[in-house]
Structure formats: structure tokens, C-alpha cells
Amino acid sequence: MARGKFQIRRIENQTNRQVTYSKRRNGLFKKAHELTVLCDAKVSIIMVSSTNKLHEYISPSVTNKLHDVNVHAN
Description:
Elements: H1 14-39, E1 44-48, E2 54-58, H2 60-73
Antiparallel strand pairs: 1-2
């Protein structure tokens, strides 16, 4: 059974909006991790919620390279 089309618009109910943000954030981070593992891609995501909380995903290969750059710079 196919899903129906719906219009993308702001969710007015704050609780529903926060739940949707959390679920979609987790789904996006999961997809980023899968892309990193399957394709050896370097992926970084930075998200700031409406409550100004910072959420980030950085693939391990990028983290290692950043660490190596910092070690060699000092």
C-alpha cells in the first residue's frame, strides 16, 4: 500500500514538533552512519534545534583526521 502525499509545513503543536524533530534527527544520523560504513564516505552533520541545542554527527574517519591535524599543529 502506497503512502499518500502530504504538504510539508511547520508542525504547530510544540510537543509533536519536538517528537518529530527527535525521530527524524535520529533517522538522519543513522543514515549518515550507514553511508559512512557502506561507502567509506566522510560525513558531518551539525543541527541546532529550536531550543538552541547542538546535535552533531561526525564520521569516525573525519574525527581521526581532525585529531591528526591537531596533533601535528601543536
